[in-house]
From TrEMBL:
It is a multi-pass membrane protein. One of its GO terms (molecular function) is olfactory receptor activity. It comes from Equus asinus. Residues 43-294 form the G-protein coupled receptors family 1 profile domain. SUPFAM superfamilies: Family A G protein-coupled receptor-like. It is found in: Cell membrane; Membrane. GO terms for biological process: cellular response to lipid. The keyword rRNA processing does not apply. Keywords: Cell membrane, G-protein coupled receptor, Membrane, Olfaction, Receptor, Sensory transduction, Transducer, Transmembrane, Transmembrane helix. One of its GO terms (cellular component) is plasma membrane. PROSITE patterns: G_PROTEIN_RECEP_F1_1, G_PROTEIN_RECEP_F1_2. Pfam families: 7tm_4. Belongs to the G-protein coupled receptor 1 family. This is Olfactory receptor.
Length: 333
C-alpha cells in the first residue's frame, strides 16, 4: 500500500484506479489483463490483414467486419497505456489535458463501434430481405459513403462535448474509478452542478447508442418476419445462421455499456471495484470476443486464415526442409 499511495497529485491532475482494494494483487491481475489485450490486438489485426489480403473477402459484409476490427483495435490502444501503467508501474497520475484526450478517443471509438454495428445490421437486412438488390445497393462507393457518414457523426457530436469540457473547472487530485478517463466518472468532480453535465452526457449516449440499438432491433424484426415467411426449414436455419455473429457482437457490446452507464449515473452506492470491473469488461470484452466469434462462426474467414498460414509455411524454407525429411522417413518406413 505504501508503494501504491506514493503518487503525489497536483490540483490539475486526476488519479487513476485499477481495482480498488486489490492494489497488492495488481501484478497478478496484470497477467490476465495483458493476455486479453494481446488477444484483442492480435485477433483484430489478423481479421484486418486477412480481409485486405484475400480478394474473395472483398464483399460488403467483410468490409463492415474490417471496420469493426479497426475500431476495436483503436479502442484497445486508447486505454492500453494507462491500464498497464497503473497495473505495472503504479503510474496513477494523469493530467487534465491527457485525460480529456483519452476520454475523447474512448467515447468516439465506443460510439463508432455502435454505428458500425448498425451498418452491419443493415447489411444483414439487405442480404436476407432484399437479396436481389443487395449487390446494386451495397456497392463499394456506398460502403465508403456509409463509413464517412459514421465518422462525421462522431466528430459532430463528440468534439463539441469535449471542447465544452475543456472550459469546465474540476477538483484536482481526485481518484477516478477506472484506469482510464470516462465521462460519467470525471464529471462528478466539477465545481458546477455535476448532475446537469452527467444527464447531458447520458442524453448524448442515449441519443447515439439508443437510436443505433433501435435501428438494430427494427432490422431484426424485419429479418425475422422474412425468415418466418420462408417455407423450407433448412433455408430458415441458413438465413438465421448468417446473423448469429452479429447478434453476439451486439450483445457483447451493448450489455456491458448499458450496465456501466446506469451503474455510474443511477446507482451511486455501487462499490467502486464493481464499477472498475464493469468498465474493463465494457472496453475489453468486445475487442477480445469479436475476432474469436467471427473466426469460429464464419467459415470463409476461418478458411482464409488457414490458407494464409499454409501459404506462409510453404514459403518458409525451414518448414519445407522439415516436411521433406518427414516425408523421406515415412517412405523408408
Amino acid at each position: 500500500m505504501v508503494i501504491y499511495n506514493n503518487t503525489t497529485s497536483s490540483s490539475s491532475n486526476f488519479l487513476l484506479t485499477a481495482f480498488p482494494g486489490l492494489e497488492l494483487a495488481h501484478v497478478w491481475i496484470s497477467i490476465p489483463v495483458c493476455c486479453l489485450y494481446t488477444v484483442a490486438l492480435l485477433g483484430n489485426s489478423m481479421i484486418l490483414f486477412v480481409i485486405i489480403v484475400e480478394r474473395s473477402l472483398h464483399k460488403p459484409m467483410y468490409y463492415f467486419l474490417s471496420m469493426l476490427s479497426a475500431v476495436d483495435l483503436c479502442l484497445t490502444v486508447s486505454t492500453l497505456p494507462t491500464v498497464l501503467g497503473v497495473l505495472w508501474f503504479h503510474a496513477r497520475e494523469i493530467s487534465f489535458k491527457a485525460c480529456l484526450i483519452q476520454m475523447f478517443f474512448v467515447h468516439s471509438f465506443s460510439f463508432l463501434e455502435s454505428s458500425v454495428l448498425v451498418a452491419m445490421a443493415f447489411d444483414r437486412f439487405m442480404a436476407i430481405c432484399n437479396p436481389l438488390k443487395y449487390a446494386t445497393v451495397l456497392t463499394d462507393k456506398m460502403i465508403m459513403m456509409i463509413g464517412l457518414v459514421i465518422c462525421m457523426r462522431q466528430v459532430i457530436f463528440i468534439f463539441p462535448m469535449t471542447l465544452a469540457l475543456k472550459s469546465v473547472s474540476f477538483h484536482g487530485g481526485q481518484e477516478l474509478s477506472h484506469p482510464f478517463c470516462y465521462h460519467s466518472d470525471v464529471i462528478k468532480y466539477t465545481y458546477s452542478n455535476p448532475r446537469i453535465s452527467s444527464f447531458l452526457g447520458m442524453f448524448l449516449q442515449l441519443y447515439l447508442t439508443g437510436t443505433d440499438l433501435l435501428f438494430i432491433l427494427f432490422s431484426y424484426v424485419l429479418i425475422l418476419r422474412t425468415v418466418l415467411s420462408i417455407v423450407a426449414p433448412k433455408k430458415q436455419q441458413k438465413a438465421l445462421n448468417t446473423c448469429v455473429c452479429h447478434i453476439c457482437a451486439v450483445t457483447v457490446f451493448y450489455v456491458p455499456m448499458i450496465s456501466l452507464s446506469f451503474t455510474h449515473r443511477l446507482l451511486s452506492s455501487t462499490p467502486r471495484v464493481i464499477c472498475s470491473v464493469l468498465a474493463n469488461i465494457y472496453l475489453l470484452l468486445p475487442p477480445v470476443l469479436n475476432p474469436i466469434i467471427y473466426s469460429l462462426k464464419t467459415r470463409t474467414i476461418r478458411r482464409a486464415v488457414l490458407r494464409l498460414f499454409q501459404s506462409k509455411c510453404s514459403r518458409d524454407p525451414n518448414v519445407k526442409g522439415s516436411q521433406r525429411r518427414v516425408g523421406w522417413k515415412w517412405r523408408t518406413c
